[in-house]
Amino acid sequence: MKDIKRIVLTGGPCAGKTTALVRIIEHFSNLGFKVFTVPEVPTMYSQGGWSYLTPNYDLYYEGELAILRTQLALENSFMRLAETCTKPTFVVCDRGTLDISAYIAPEMWQDLCEKCGTSTNDMRQRYDAVLHLVSAADGAEQYYTVATNANRYEQANEEGLQLARDLDKKVNRAWTGHPHLRVINNHDDFDAKINRVLKEISNVLGIPQPIEDERTYLVEIVGDLPECVESEITQTYLVADPGCEVRLRRRAWRGGETVNVHKTKKRISAGEVLETERQVSNALYESLLQQADPYRATIRKTRRSFIWRGQYFEIDTFHQPVSNLVILETKGVANEESVNFPPFLRIVKDITGNREYYNYNIALRK
Q1: 260 and which of 39, 127, 233, 285 could share a cystine (Cβ 3.0–4.6 Å)?
Q2: How many Cα atoms are found within 13 Å in the side-chain-facing hemisphere of 61?
Q3: Rounded to whole angstroms, how far apart are CA atoms 332 and 312?
Q4: Which of 213, 219, 215 is nearest to 349 (CA)?
Q5: By mean pLDDT, which of 67-71, 255-259, 288-292, 343-347 is the weakest?
Q6: Sheet holding 209-210: strands in order across?
Q7: Number of C-alpha atoms within 13 angstroms, CB side, residue 93?
Q8: For residues 215 and 356, is the Cβ–Cβ distance under 8 A?
């Protein structure tokens, strides 16, 4: 069977998904790909007369059930279409199944899953990547508009903007635990946001990318962090060929969710790198540990991820093989852009590009 990638494009209100879809089709069609796009199902039902604001609970429930069933069926149909293509192809979903869970009570979501014969974990594994575009309501308020979606109830006033920000975070949490969840920041230049989408899809498709260092900083936490996603990471480097870096990571979230990811990073030229990653079972994870690089220690750290003023950050607090080391990493902030540093952090040092602080080198046994 062909290895057809299924990618979700999601995010809060007014995040730029519609424009991104157009650019995805244009860009990858020029590279010889056939791009299938699954339409946004909740909008189809809203335009057809159903409303999630109805006071009729039975009507509301049946609508949500219909949305989930339709989403599953449409995705399966487009995957079958993709399998018949002779050209390289992939499928982009305008929102995915887990988006639905962000809008309803957990009890109802569980009930809908049972009626559809599936589960949250099964639906998370349906997709090869999830790209979350941050709502313009968070950090790019001047671009927030309801003109592109007449059904949007998060209006362009302060109350509506806060609703949009809250919803953006709910959608992001719904996808927590996916091994290839990428958050796409707001940028001063909207094209930069779209280019990051194209870059992440290229990574999923195995297209070599220019080598870029994420901007990283030594920091001290001097105040209370906002609501964030916290996880414990165990990272082991495996024996690999020269010029190739192989990493095995186990990431565990509160609530018992655990994901294992095997990642290979190979430099193919002075300026290009090819990265591939795959989720592995617990049994394969334990087996791969037998290939651990004896010259590198296992890294253990706590990661806290959050969005602040439209930019996505990760704070890693290391426990082994070093301690008292806290590193802030930005995600997708262009070189010419300013970083919106949160006030609860004190920046000690800019370590961008400093190989001493690469995880690969932190793991070196002294």
Answers
A1: 285
A2: 11
A3: 8
A4: 219
A5: 255-259
A6: 209-210, 272-280, 258-267, 244-253, 229-238, 299-308, 311-320, 325-331, 216-221, 345-350
A7: 29
A8: no
Provide the token pair at 258.
């655990």
Structure tokens at 68: 């989930």
Average pLDDT over residues 284-312: 93
SS3 label, residue 285? helix
- Using DSSP, state whether 345 is helix, strand or coil: strand
Contact partners, residue 47, CB within 8 Å, separation at least 6? 151
Q: Which two tokens stand for residue 31?
A: 């590279």
Rounded CA-CA distance 345/153 in Å is: 34
Respond yes or no on whether the N-terminal peptide bond of residue 88 is cis (omega within 30° of 0): no
The pLDDT value given to residue 150: 47
How far is residue 304 from each of residues 73, 178, 283, measured CA to CA in Å? Answer: 35, 15, 27
Supply the mean pLDDT for the chain.
Answer: 89
- What average pLDDT does range 262-274 have in this prediction? 85
Q: Is a pLDDT exceeding 80 seen at residue 336?
A: no
Distance set, CA 153 to CA 92, 157, 189, 190, 223 (Å): 26, 11, 26, 24, 34
- Match 């991104």 to its residue by tokens: 20
pLDDT digits (tens, 9 = 90+) for 130-174: 999 988 777 667 666 655 554 445 455 667 788 888 888 899 999
pLDDT above 90: percentage of residues in the chain: 62
Backbone φ, ψ for residue 226 (5° rounding): -75, 180
Provide CB contacts within 8 A for 157, sequence distance 6+.
none
Q: Compute the distance between CA of residue 309 and CA of residue 185 in angstroms, rounded to an integer.
A: 9
Q: Which two tokens stand for residue 167?
A: 């919803």
Beta carbons of 305 and 295 less than 8 angstroms apart: no
User: Can you say whether the dihedral through the CA atoms of 102, 103, 109, 113 is positive or negative?
Assistant: negative
What are residue 235's DSSP bridge partners?
249, 299
Q: What is the dihedral of CA 284, 286, 291, 295, to 10 degrees?
A: 140
